[in-house]
Amino acid sequence: MHEGKLCNKKPIDTEEELRALLNDTGGRTYYEEMKELDVDTELLWGTVKKTIKSRIKTWLEICAHCGMCADSCFLYLIDNRDPKQVPAYKIQSTLGEIVKRKGKVDNRFMLMAMETAWSKCTCCNRCGLYCPHGIDMGVMFGNLRALLYQQGFVPWEMKIGAGMHRVYRAQMDVTDEEFVETFEWMVEEYEEDYIGLEVPVDVEGADIFYTVNAREVKHYPEDLAEAAILFNIAGENWTVASKGWEQTSLAMFAGDGEACKMQVESVYAAMERLKPKRMVGTECGHAHRATVIEGPYWAGRRDGKPPVECIHYVEWLAEALREGKIKIDPTKRIKRPVTVQDSCNYIRNHGLKEITREIISYIVEPGYFIDMTPNKEHNYCCGGGGGFNGIGLYRPQRNRALITKRDQILNTGAELVLAPCHNCWDAIRDLEEEYEIGIEWSFLKPLIISMAVIPDHMKPEE
Amino acid sequence: MYEFFTGYMFWISISICLVGMLVRVVLYFKGLDWRLDRVAYKAYPLHGLKGGLRSVIYWLIPFGTHGWRKQPVMTLLFFGFHTGAVLVPLFLIGHNLFLEEKIGFSLFTMNQLTADILTWLVVASALLLALRRIALPEVRILTTAYDYFILFISTAPFVTGLIARYEVGNYSFWLLIHIICGEALLIAIPFTKLSHIVLFFASRIQLGMDYAIKRGGFKGKGVAW
Questions:
Q1: A54, A349, A353: residue with CB nearest B215
Q2: Burial class (CB in 10 A: 0-12, 13-18, 19+), A333
Q3: How high is the pLDDT of residue B3?
Q4: B28 within some domain
């Protein structure tokens, strides 16, 4: 069976393999090799039989081919209503065909399926809300991605991302030491401005165990300091873990179930070790989905819950504002048109729609908040979800996909977009770069810091 | 011939249909796998069931969901077709007289005018649903011969029923064809997409449980279907 040196069915398990793949700029050799990659049809059919059971078999069978899902998909709408972008067509022509042909598909088919799985679906699950039968095509695309990953048909960046989790237990090459050092360094940078600022590491029995996105450590370290500042303002008893600190999972986007399990178990191990009362994750959508919503199942937890109660950053923030742990200076409330991006991963898929609006009620002057249309659990994906943001091969498609969000934002007339999700934040940044509509976008942390009343004991002496 | 189709075949077809539907539902729920589906079905049975029923009820109400409201024409065709397709076979006076004679039991019956209107609605909606499949590119790309077959087999008993009811041509002949079409439909239900008669409920309950148990059902007011 023909396999490439870089593009093959073997997951990345060592730093050397990771380096080799990273050195192949843009995945040029990787994608060349993929054109010759053979499909192990027996393995494929074997996996289908093991994983495509009652729920998905029924979905594929009873789909009435009514096309009601078409309009629900922003990629269909943005692609001039191309019928090939109808969710039911996309899944029937890929996963449906694999099942129908009992896994007997070839390289060409798999290349088409890969393009469909990663550039024509962001797994936002919106279509599932519009199907009378309750067929959730986003869920099925997760299964399709897993089948493709197992066969080596996965975008270069996704293979690397999954490999990062396998090697570093983080989505980027950030070691445990680097995480702690970066957090401590960032806190030092701010400790003159906020007296007593510190980052407690590995404290047992804390009220809050804070987990982050490795991107923050690598690219936006000030986010770590901002988290520390807000926990300190709120007077929280919090900690981070020197191991098991990464909440995200590119493995989930890649379809690497084994790496998903490894990653989330590292976070759960930290919970077991430190025994915190709760875990609070950073402003990230997919990280929340991976660790809090899907993670318990990857880890085989029958109650579907993580070892300790886990909440999203917006839940903690709403609570801190509600209980007065963080007080907003009324004169600093936002007094310009502002809207909010509802992240698919914790709004549609975890019901937190009212929480973000509660935060807005504390920080935005009445009359200045304008909701997008549609919104809440019916909101459209930012355009970059499910790994779409990170895949160079599909950048033109991703850029076109941003138009939906661009127009939604433009229709609100907002100058500022609250984006409490890394993926959404990145997509909105990119849409501003690409289309220059003159908006600002922000996580909540820096905005809250700019509006919060700093307790006297944290104020530097004049 | 008439005796055969109202005798043995009646029993055979109705048994295949009922047992078949039961088997499909049992197999569906037995086949659900908490780990593969990533839904802790058994951990929260009542909460899950509540979410499941909510998901069914909203979708049974015309214009009750965002999906129905988004596509008003399809909603009218859908309910136009399904209301008659479900109610007329069960509550038609002729069917119930037959049942009474056969098993000494009958259901509530609807008056003839209601039955006529609903049956015409089924036929007209089916025709428009077929045209919709041809006219709309997003539906055409999904449509296969099998979809037309399903539409044909589920509409045939209504068309033939109307012909017999208005006594166009030979009444006995069309009544017999109507009975054969009806029985063919009953037999097809468990083995084809028509199994959605029960699997619609199963699948909707599953997704409702998924949202209730895992995707935010413990967090807020529940998903706005």
A1: A349
A2: middle
A3: 87
A4: yes
A-B contacts at Cβ under 8 angstroms: 160
Domain that includes residue B15, residue range: 2-214
Residue of B nearest to A56 (CA): B37
- Supply the DSSP string of A74-100, one letter for each residue: HHHHHTTT-GGG-HHHHHIIIIIHHHH
Determine whether the interchain pair A92/B36 forms a contact, defined as Cβ–Cβ distance below 8 Å. no
Residue A264 domain flag: yes
Residue B124 within any structural domain of the chain: yes
Is pLDDT at A445 greater than 90 in this prediction?
A: yes
CA–CA min distance A148, chain B (Å) = 17
Number of structural domains in chain B: 1
Enumerate the β-bridge partners of residue A278. Answer: A208, A309
Q: What is the DSSP letter of A306?
A: -
- In this complex, which of B66, B139, B142 lies closest to A130 when CB atoms are compared? B66
Same domain? A124 vs A241: no
pTM reported for the whole predicted model: 0.96
Tell me which residue in B36, B136, B217 faces A67 most closely, judged by beta carbons. B136
Tell whether A460 is covered by a domain.
no
CB B194 within 8 A of CB B185: yes
State the CATH number of the domain containing residue A370: 3.40.50
- Angstrom distance (rounded) from CA A66 to CA A132: 9
Instruction: Give the structural domain span for A81.
Output: 39-154
Q: Which of A318, A414, A424, A418 is nearest to A370 (CA)?
A: A414
HEC letters along A143-171: HHHHHHHHCCCCCHHHHHHHHHHHHHCCC
Q: Which residue in A53, A81, A350, A352 has the most chain B C-beta atoms within 10 A of its own C-beta, making it the best mutation to test that interface?
A: A350
A379 and A279 within one domain: no
Q: Find out whether B189 and B17 touch, Cβ atoms under 8 Å.
A: yes
Asked if A341 and A263 sit in the same domain, the reply is: no
Q: Find the CATH number of the domain harbouring B39.
A: 1.20.950
pLDDT tens track for A208-229: 999 999 999 999 999 999 999 9
User: Which of B63, B215, B225 would best serve as a mutation to test chain A binding (most A beta carbons within 10 A)?
Assistant: B215
Which run of H or of E encompasses A1?
none
3 state DSSP class of B28: helix
Nearest CA in chain B to A312: B219
Please report whether residue A85 resides in a domain. Answer: yes
Tokens linked to B139: 């539906």
pLDDT digits (tens, 9 = 90+) for B106-163: 999 999 999 999 999 999 999 999 999 999 999 999 999 999 999 999 999 999 999 9
